[in-house]
Amino acid sequence: MTRLLVLGLLAGLLASVVTFGVARLVGEPALDAAIAMETTDSHTHATDTPDLSDTGGMSRHLQAGPGLFVGLAAVGVALGGILAISFAVARGRILHGSTRATVAWITALGFAAVIVVPMLKFPGNPPAVGNPETIGARTLAYFAFLALSLATLGPAVSAVKGIASRRRKMLIGAGIYAGVMSGAAILLPSFHEVDPAFPRDLLWQFRASTLAVQATLWASTGIAFGWLVERFGQSI
Amino acid sequence: MTVATRPAVSSDLPAIPMRDIAPWAILAALLAVLLVYFVGAEQGAWSVFAGTDVHEFVHDARHLLGFPCH
């Protein structure tokens, strides 16, 4: 178990190095463009621009380099650890396939429930977008939606445990999950705070890059973990 | 997916007993929540530490991971 956990943490760290590259390449240009919007166009959306934005005296160089890496590494290592624990719980108990297949299932389900679904309801905003007065409500709604998504996963998986047909199992499980999450998405408040003056293609570019960053982090953590366990995890 | 070059080993191994996993699971879950909180939300909606230094340092990571930032 200890070894499995170490491999998970290591996988997360390796993945955050890869993700750092993607974030620099894909994410930073959108982020910089949005910050430029914020400083040049501040007269057009004065109410939307928070005062403490966007560097607070910290250089962009520090934010886009060490800051970005530390942030990604912290989340990556946490993800690797959680992946290792989930793998330990699921293997031989919930999933009975090979190491790689088990890791792939956990990573894919986790990515869908933790990233994709919350992102559909509460997509990330670039700098210069977002009303600082609602940050409390937005953050709370986001984490509540995320917690519900995770909480629904367990019952949805256990509800279909006894069903023999693999196809029916997946359909019913996905149906339960989609039903609960759709209901929650309708009930929870939505926030429409994008200034009409903010370029739409830049907003899209930014949001697509957040998906790319998360997809890279999750996929490379899963791939690294699967590989490490097959290679070094035989004696667990 | 390509065909595995060696036989699947995991299905031959017994499941790790839950009592071995539980303490790690609790610790890891708590630490993970703490880490994600500091990267994702500290000094945004809520603050443990005063100021904005934590927020600003992880600013780019927070944005690019898609957390609500400001």
From TrEMBL, chain A:
Kinase in keyword set: no
InterPro entries xrefs: CbtA_put
Record flagged with keyword Thylakoid: no
Transmembrane regions: 68-90, 102-120, 140-159, 171-191, 211-229
Secretion signal span: none
Keyword terms: Membrane, Transmembrane, Transmembrane helix
Name of the protein in question: Putative cobalt transporter subunit CbtA
Source species of the chain: Donghicola tyrosinivorans
Lineage: Bacteria, Pseudomonadati, Pseudomonadota, Alphaproteobacteria, Rhodobacterales
Automatic annotation (TrEMBL), chain B:
UniProt keyword annotations, A-Z: Membrane, Transmembrane, Transmembrane helix
A Pfam family reported for this protein in Swiss-Prot or TrEMBL: CbtB
Keyword Membrane: yes
Transmembrane segments: 21-39
InterPro entries: CbtB_put
Protein name, entry field: Cobalt transporter subunit CbtB
Organism of this sequence: Donghicola tyrosinivorans
